[in-house]
Amino acid sequence: xxxxxxxxxxxxxxxxxxxxxxxxxxxxxxxxxxxxxxxxxxxxxxxxxxxxxxxxxxxxxxxxxxxxxxxxxxxxxxxxxxxxxxxxxxxxxxxxxxxxxxxxxxxxxxxxxxxxxxxxxxxxxxxxxxxxxxxxxxxxxxxxxxxxxxxxxxxxxxxxxxxxxxxxxxxxxxxxxxxxxxxxxxxxxxxxxxxxxxxxxxxxxxxxxxxxxxxxxxxxxxxxxxxxxxxxxxxxxxxxxxxxxxxxxxxxxxxxxxxxxxxxxxxxxxxxxxxxxxxxxxxxxxxxxxxxxxxxxxxxxxxxxxxxxxxxxxxxxxxxxxxxxxxxxxxxxxxxxxxxxxxxxxxxxxxxxxxxxxxxxxxxxxxxxxxxxxxxxxxxxxxxxxxxxxxxxxxxxxxxxxxxxxxxxxxxxxxxxxxxxxxxxxxxxxxxxxxxxxxxxxxxxxxxxxxxxxxxxxxxxxxxxxxxxxxxxxxxxxxxxxxxxxxxxxxxxxxxxxxxxxxxxxxxxxxxxxxxxxxxxxxxxxxxxxxxxxxxxxxxxxxxxxxxxxxxxxxxxxxxxxxxxxxxxxxxxxxxxxxxxxxxxxxxxxxxxxxxxxxxxxxxxxxxxxxxxxxxxx
Length: 618
Prior knowledge:
Layout: H1 17-25, H2 34-42, E1 47-50, H3 59-67, E2 71-75, H4 79-91, E3 96-99, H5 105-116, E4 122-125, H6 127-130, H7 133-140, E5 144-149, H8 164-167, H9 172-175, E6 181-185, H10 190-199, E7 206-209, E8 217-223, H11 227-239, E9 243-247, H12 251-263, E10 268-271, H13 277-289, E11 294-297, E12 310-315, H14 322-329, E13 339-345, H15 347-358, H16 364-382, H17 387-394, H18 407-410, E14 415-417, H19 419-431, H20 438-446, H21 451-456, H22 472-484, E15 488-490, E16 498-500, H23 505-508, E17 515-517, H24 541-561, H25 565-568, H26 571-580, H27 585-588, H28 596-615
Parallel strand pairs: 1-6, 1-7, 2-4, 2-5, 3-4, 5-6, 8-13, 9-11, 9-12, 10-11, 12-13
Antiparallel strand pairs: 14-17, 15-16
Helix pairs in contact: 2-3, 15-16, 19-20, 20-22, 24-26, 24-28
């Protein structure tokens, strides 16, 4: 390969991490923790990095791969992630490539030749390919600069993204004891961290643990009441024209929801494992490359998606755990701009997930752990406290003050002493044999005339008609919250009836008080209450016009190269161009995100648009 052009420029081995950050990436300073981790890896030591999505994990192995002799081997679980990362690296002049199933045999052979001839600095590879005899033989013929194990939580057998191949990565320290390894993840509770350390043999690695908090994401959770319409109202009033992801539990619901949104004027594309591979890839590519696309998906979509301007992530069904929820909502607002995580849930979601768990092939210990994780998620939904405090506490992090950026903080929830109501509900369950669900029990508590109640003689028990101080909806809330605080369990092997837990004894005896939250009343939206959440705003028409012109140029360039627009320049870089109005290539070089290669490739084109704007009459 020629080395005279900026696209193939060589970085001096003596260059510092900060030099490379400025020269290649176009930034003057690192984000918190990055430089420390980079220097640690360059020195040849192992690291475990827990950093939130958008915190800049990729730089922590990309820069050491450029500086250290040899090829940086990045082990990544998804093709989409590899392609995006490689496209981004090539844009700034780094010799990067990937080996995965999307390549033909000849394409893969050419990459292998480049590895052997030293023409690659950074290689992305799936764990299953890395473990093949062919790749292991290839590794023995090159000098690895480092091994980066991305999405390291995939090693956890108790996690939501378990990949069995990750466990076999424990061979690396034995075969390459002198090559540093860096394991990275944005999602790991205490138990998952222990698994990562044990199974990847990182006991001697330095731990770099940063806050899990994503303060730019606003969490909003609501009870289902015609969930499709609730979603449509949310998008229409707050997210029109923005890119977003909508998660559903089933493939059928994915397709139905995508069609519903299309019928109401939005470009919504389905994504699930049952679709043809070509359709999935085409839909994902459109989402990455076009503006205003909504992807409706199962959890098969999203891990490793680098699109920075996803403004919302919506859940129409409960995910399976807080880890899964954190991972999925973390795909919003990667650019640091405002984003929303919106979710609608119901007690039926909880019962369905518990039935799915009980009918799975997992052993009893696994089922117990998964049930506890689902309980924690339901507790997050039902909490009257700051949602961010509850979530961070689950990951072992203490947030001293309420966040001020979740629905609970913005519209505080009232609580009430529900001890007597809880006793009535628990007693009713006990006296009916712990066999029935909420609908039947509420009819008894309200004293409703019901042929089934009369036939079973439940109109004669002491709890018949003793609950008319609450409405039907209020009793539904009571039962839902009793499950959330683990006073009730669901008989998933039968017909979904409620069973008392050991914890309810102290409540029935009057030794423990129970407080419930009042379910919030949905506010009717009108023009005055409409919220605009555009992440980039400008004060003048002139600035807005220039912004759109720069975006159009970026879009045209990206389309010609068949890459996402954000790989050319992030929104934040274009925003700085509008604010700073560079008038020369020298001034353009000082814009954050404009490194040497991008300046050489695109500087004159963007400068021409900027100078044309300055010549326009006011």
